[in-house]
Specification:
Blueprint lengths: L9 H10 L2 H11 L15 E4 L7 H16 L6 E4 L7 H10 L4 E5 L22 H9 L1 H13 L2 E16 L13 E4 L3 H9 L3 E4 L5 H6 L5 E5 H6 L8 E17 H6 L2 H36 L2 E4 L2 H10 L1 H10 L2 H8 L5
Parallel strand pairs: 1-2, 1-3, 5-6, 5-7, 8-9
Antiparallel strand pairs: 3-8, 4-7, 4-8
Length: about 350
């Protein structure tokens, strides 16, 4: 694996510049030239890039910006990170590849696209595991489980610094859903993820993979009946305008990981590793707080529009869980059993 050196590396910054679009190059170059070495002490001559594929006004961006801010504050301004949002440096897959190569040291993104790189992360595709975000966060922070997941990232060439979330994924639709039978036949847009498709099929729905850019028009033209996303995505993209109901299926947590190239992190001095670890912890806590506040705001926007929010009964959630046991079996067969057992520990099965 390529090494990403920490300081004074003109060769390395040139390699970064070759990996990104022309429009981004000017931005990186401007921060690359802000530092200089006036003594024998090594100084950071450019800001390390942190990339996301998410728009700026999202929890993903909040998470990334808070981490960069805390790193700067904790290092008294000696360590600098520049955040590039909205796929400026590439889409999700591009960012994972360039992070593994060491060309872009930091990435913040949803765990879903990472499953094709690290199959054990499919544990987060197990549906309807948690009844609350607090329960989900306690599991993510559990030392045993966190250690197992951190090992998965390390084996993939990354170091996991933190994991926040954007709340649960929920369903929006033009047909009311109050029971398991109400899912039957609904044509719902999903991500291109085999476990997600299997889940909706198990409920009797008709899942349809579709580019996200086509979802609003698809709902408007009724080529699809429904879609599923976190509240923030539903509101920021005005999807609720084309839907009569939002159903709190809460079928999956929308988890967001903050990762860094593992070789890059190991090459840092111990005090800088500690700064990044502390900064990530502070940023994770802040991102979760912001996520909760923003969900409440988005719910208010949806309700004010006249779109009805449906909360499923405990009985219906139990029926959904039972109907999706085949998804559990499929994931359990393909991931590390220690990870599966740790994630499901304490969960009624």
């Amino acid at each position: 694996m390529k090494k990403f050196t920490t300081y004074n590396s003109d060769k390395k910054i040139r390699r970064i510049l070759r990996t990104v679009p022309v429009l981004a190059t000017a931005g990186i170059l401007s921060v690359a030239l802000t530092g200089c070495s006036s003594s024998n002490e090594e100084v950071q001559r450019y800001s390390w890039p942190l990339a996301t594929a998410s728009p700026k006004d999202t929890v993903t961006q909040i998470f990334a910006e808070k981490f960069a801010e805390e790193v700067s504050d904790l290092s008294n301004g000696k360590m600098k990170i520049q955040v590039y949002a909205n796929s400026t440096l590439g889409g999700d897959r591009d960012l994972l590849e360039t992070c593994a190569d060491g060309d872009i040291p930091f990435v913040v993104q949803n765990t879903a696209p990472q499953v094709s790189f690290m199959s054990d992360l499919a544990v987060f595709d197990l549906p309807c595991v948690f009844d609350s975000l607090d329960d989900c966060r306690k599991k993510i922070d559990d030392p045993q489980f966190n250690s197992l997941i951190s090992d998965v990232y390390t084996e993939g060439g990354y170091h996991l610094l933190g994991m926040a979330d954007q709340g649960f994924r929920v369903m929006s639709t033009n047909k009311p859903v109050n029971s398991l039978a109400d899912f039957k036949g609904q044509k719902i847009r999903t991500m291109e993820n085999s476990y997600h498709l299997a889940f909706w099929k198990a409920l009797g729905a008709n899942p349809t993979p579709m580019s996200f850019s086509e979802v609003y028009i698809g709902l408007q033209q009724h080529t699809i009946d429904a879609q599923e996303n976190p509240y923030e995505v539903i509101v920021s993209n005005n999807l609720y305008e084309q839907q009569d109901y939002v159903v709190e299926t809460n079928h999956l947590p929308h988890l967001i990981s903050l990762i860094v190239n593992d070789d890059f992190f190991k090459d840092l001095p111990e005090d800088e590793q500690e700064i990044m670890t502390e900064a990530a912890q502070l940023a994770t806590e802040y991102a979760r707080e912001q996520s909760d506040a923003r969900i409440a705001d988005k719910v208010a926007v949806i309700e004010d529009s006249g779109t009805q929010i449906i909360k499923l009964s405990d009985e219906t959630r139990k029926e959904i869980r039972e109907a999706s046991q085949g998804v559990y079996d499929s994931i359990r067969e393909k991931i590390n059993p220690d990870i599966y057992n740790s994630y499901m520990e304490g969960i009624e099965q």
